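Backbone-to-sequence.
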């Protein structure tokens, strides 16, 4: 049974199914999102409003979104989580085989790419006539700096697919300008590694058997349906991203597991 507050909020904003269907209808205006959702990996992923979480998430079984969000903010979160669905399928190795440092960098890379891709998805939605999701990202407390880097280099008079190439690059690299982002995801990544060390220590033997390279980063930073990465080859900023994280915190087997 719903509480009075849940009932009132549901009456104002619509119930979960209604809100989710409206968000999905919005995101399907984007060709990028449609390409992802049409892929094999998306077929077994449940997308739902999760009343038990305090942050949106994506795993191989579900995308959970926050309740009581406006449609435009929900679309932005959904675009980010959808972008995660097939990122590691572009690699020819398992991220779980990376060294500790490379795994932290990999997690940063996929978050930066998901934010950049979400902006590209919302830009395509804006081109269809609905600018609200893109506008919401521009004022989002979490993503406004990244969105500003995207929007400031966006030529809205250009209706070709090339219009997003430079904005994608700038928003991707802008992610790394704010150390808060890295600190959040580094802590979560260390929690994942600690969980593996505690629960599946035999998997630690594989750590460091694969190497994260600039080519792998560019493969991750490739929009679904695109033949090439939106990141330029031989960009010196790529080499800087692959430098070992600092400080190098040890992996504790007793570190708490992250919530998502």
């Amino acid at each position: 049974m719903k509480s009075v507050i849940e009932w009132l909020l549901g009456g104002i904003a619509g119930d979960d199914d209604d809100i989710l269907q409206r968000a999905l209808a919005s995101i399907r205006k984007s060709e990028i999102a449609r390409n992802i959702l049409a892929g094999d990996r998306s077929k077994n992923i449940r997308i739902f409003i999760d009343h038990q979480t305090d942050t949106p998430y994506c795993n191989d079984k579900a995308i959970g979104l926050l309740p009581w969000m406006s449609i435009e903010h929900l679309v932005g979160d959904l675009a980010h989580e959808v972008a995660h669905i097939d990122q590691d399928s572009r690699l020819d190795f398992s991220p779980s085989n990376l060294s500790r440092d490379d795994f932290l960098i990999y997690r940063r890379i996929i978050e930066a790419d998901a934010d950049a891709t979400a902006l590209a998805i919302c830009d395509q939605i804006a081109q269809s006539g609905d600018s609200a999701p893109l506008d919401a990202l521009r004022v989002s407390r979490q993503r406004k700096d990244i969105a500003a880097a995207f929007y400031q280099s966006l030529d809205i008079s250009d209706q070709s697919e090339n219009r997003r190439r430079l904005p994608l690059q700038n928003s991707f690299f802008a992610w790394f300008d704010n150390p808060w982002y890295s600190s959040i995801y580094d802590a979560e990544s260390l929690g994942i590694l600690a969980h593996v060390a505690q629960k599946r220590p035999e998997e630690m033997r594989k750590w460091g058997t694969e190497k994260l390279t600039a080519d792998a980063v560019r493969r991750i930073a490739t929009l679904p349906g695109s033949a090439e990465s939106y990141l330029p080859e031989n960009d010196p900023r790529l080499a800087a991203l692959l430098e070992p994280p600092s400080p190098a915190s040890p992996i504790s087997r007793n570190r708490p597991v992250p919530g998502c």
